[in-house]
What we know:
The protein is mostly helical. Helix content is 95%, strand content 0%.
Amino acid sequence: MKALATLIRLHRQRLDEARTRLASLERERDTLTDYAAALAEEIAAEAAIAAGSLETLGVYAAYRARAAAAEAHLGEEIAAVEAAIVDAHAGVAEAFRRLKTYEITAERRREAARRAEAAATQRTLDEVGRAIHRKATR
């Protein structure tokens, strides 16, 4: 039973690590999404400024090219993080499944031990009852 408790503790730790990694990836995705939203707002603001003046249109074209590259890069990073999140979800599910397997096994062993103890106690009580009955009938 001690080895099983060690396995349970080990798999709880692995589950916690998998959940921590998943949470970290989700925070990273949220940060990247916030950056993408901020970039979109910045592009809209720059477009509004550029629309007001012919002199800024040339500068805006260069800015828009760099901003488009930045948007594409952020999109790639977000996609990569989302793929990692899918893998991390699978890792959490697998770690949880393994932990549950060991926990169920431990519970079944505890229940079997409890039943064996109850049966032994009942046998002892039955023997005491039989002894009392034999004494009473003599």
